[in-house]
Amino acid sequence: MEMLPGEREVSSSSDGAVVLTSYRVRLDQGSAFISIFLDQVASCSLGTRSHPVLLVIAAVVWLGSFQFAGERVEAPAFLIGTLVGALIVGLYVMSRTQVIAIASSGETIRIRTRGMTRAACIQFIDDLERARLALVGHRST
Fold it and tell me: Model pTM?
């Protein structure tokens, strides 16, 4: 990343995909490249992303197994449907990811925080807020 005049690095991810500088935050993950200047940051959040449609599919599979099994709970159709439904629920749980979302008026950077503790994520958000306040305060004086 080429720095602008007077710009310095504040924080970065271990793989270099996310860089926070004194002027901007930048995500470079191969197919995704987003750069937002700090004075354009509207909000920052820490949350999870998931695919709730997997829970709906699991419920349909499980309820469908009742239809095929009839009144016999020990029927192979019921057991297979229950097992497949449980596997889909497991897939849902494993696919949930924690993300930091940095939004501007035009774009949102979503950073997958795999391997980061909640404290490290909050520290990154604190660093971003401090850098933004320093930039905005520097320009207003």
Answer: 0.71
